[in-house]
Design goal:
Shape: globular
Order of helices and strands: HHHHHHHEEEHEEEHHHHH
Strand content: 5-15%
Largest sheet: 3 strands, antiparallel
């Protein structure tokens, strides 16, 4: 323990949680989604701990009293409430990060969370549409399946053609498109950036959409926004220096999810298709066509190659099905 640090005696648990969340925001630059998840998980844990020690007030609980058995018991309550192992693992990940910070800041002498093992999770291979199915869906976006066909086709082209995440898509600005280099600058997790090639089909779809986007903003009497993808109503426009400037006109990840699911269902795909399915399809189809795994890792922005290797498992599974169905020695 450093000389400047002291045990967190008398400090409410919620105060320690807030201190950790500030570090995540200011020093580590985590995404808003991660921050919301950690805030929810840690405040729930703090509330449960207070009840376990019989105080009902986290100000009366010394964080050093929390042992690994308490954390295991908390995970047990999550199972009792019907939560999945994946949900329990997410809660444990937040608690572990918090305890690691508590130890580093000198608030605790021993990290009890390090003694709790992660729940063993089943390995689910993502189901992805075939290359033919994806081409048919992307090429057939019309008024029968989309409220704004030009925009929605551009969305599908970037999700599938570039393999970017939903949040990366909605975070794109106009100046992130580098037409001369035929690439887009993607702002990924942890404030990391990468360039992703912009294929001919995606570029054509984006150009068609931009024409209609400009017409929509012009009709709004000078409205401007840096966001590449905007909602049809331009909700949230406000006055800035005489011009209308909007960050709220940016399309949300939830809206993109609804757009993708609607098009997928109306084009005969499974109802569980979502934006990340198109990202999985991007990686899987690249691998099927002979792309190098390291190159796919770079394109997807995976920090670890082991994450990308899931696509190898998926393709191997598909090959096994073909072998079992066709090879004479498999019968």
């Amino acid at each position: 323990m450093s000389a400047s640090s002291a045990p967190a005696i008398g400090i409410p648990l919620d105060t320690l949680v807030i201190g950790f969340l500030k570090v995540l925001t200011n020093e580590r630059g985590v995404s808003a989604h991660t921050l919301r998840a950690y805030r929810r998980e840690l405040h729930n844990f703090a509330e449960w701990v207070s009840g376990r020690f019989g105080t009902g007030d986290d100000a009366d609980v010394n964080v050093q009293r929390i042992e690994h058995t308490d954390i295991r018991a908390y995970l047990g309550t999550l199972y009792d409430r019907g939560l999945s192992k994946a949900s329990a693992a997410r809660a444990l990940a937040a608690i572990r990060s918090w305890f690691k910070w508590l130890a580093r800041a000198g608030h605790i002498e021993q990290n009890a969370a390090s003694l709790v093992s992660t729940p063993r999770l089943p390995k689910h291979l993502p189901r992805v549409p075939s290359i033919e199915q994806m081409n048919q869906v992307v090429d057939s976006v019309g008024e029968d399946v989309a409220s704004w066909p030009a925009r929605d086709r551009a969305i599908l082209e970037l999700l599938y053609g570039c393999g970017i995440r939903n949040a990366e898509l909605t975070g794109l600005n106009l100046d992130d498109i580098h037409w001369a280099n035929e690439a887009i600058l993607v702002h990924g997790k942890g404030q990391k950036e990468r360039y992703v090639p912009l294929g001919d089909a995606a570029a054509e779809a984006v150009r068609s959409y931009l024409t209609e986007r400009s017409a929509l903003l012009d009709a709004a009497k000078g409205a401007v926004t840096p966001a590449l993808f905007v909602n049809m109503q331009l909700r949230g426009l406000g006055k800035t220096g005489g011009a209308k400037l909007s960050s709220q006109a940016r399309l949300t990840t939830r809206s993109v999810g609804r757009i993708v699911k609607r098009i997928a269902i109306l084009r005969g795909l499974s109802s569980d298709v979502h934006p990340h399915t198109l990202r999985h399809a991007f990686g899987t189809h690249l691998l099927e066509e002979g792309a190098d795994l390291r190159a796919i890792q770079e394109l997807l922005g995976h920090e670890r190659l082991s994450t990308t290797q899931r696509y190898t498992q998926l393709t191997t599974s598909q090959l096994t099905q073909v072998y079992d169905r066709t090879h004479p020695r498999a019968r």
